[in-house]
Design a protein that fits this description.
alpha+beta; 3 strands; about 20% helix; about 10% strand
Length: about 100
């Protein structure tokens, strides 16, 4: 999984040559980037921006008032699309 690959963890948007689903890709990404030295505290979510939530959910930017959590809760998109006219939000990460 390329770190800059758009929509890598969205259902139906997986590259054809990669034989796994969106949840499996997120799980592998988390395992790789947690690293063996962090086994006592593995990452549990990928929190990202880069792809505005309205593009993922087909909602109007003005409707986006919170992060979009998907891929069995493994991924959190925090790009509310401010430049598209979204109101913005603050996402609090729980430990």
């Amino acid at each position: 999984v390329a770190f800059t690959e758009r929509l890598a963890f969205v259902r139906g948007q997986i590259m054809a040559e990669v034989p796994m689903n969106h949840v499996e890709r997120a799980q592998i990404f988390l395992r790789i980037y947690s690293g063996p030295e962090r086994q006592s505290r593995l990452a549990t979510q990928i929190i990202h921006g880069h792809t505005p939530i309205p593009y993922m959910t087909q909602q109007q930017p003005q409707q986006i008032i919170q992060a979009h959590i998907y891929a069995d809760d493994l991924c959190v998109n925090v790009d509310g699309g401010l430049y598209l006219g979204g109101p913005g939000f603050v996402h609090i990460v729980e430990e």
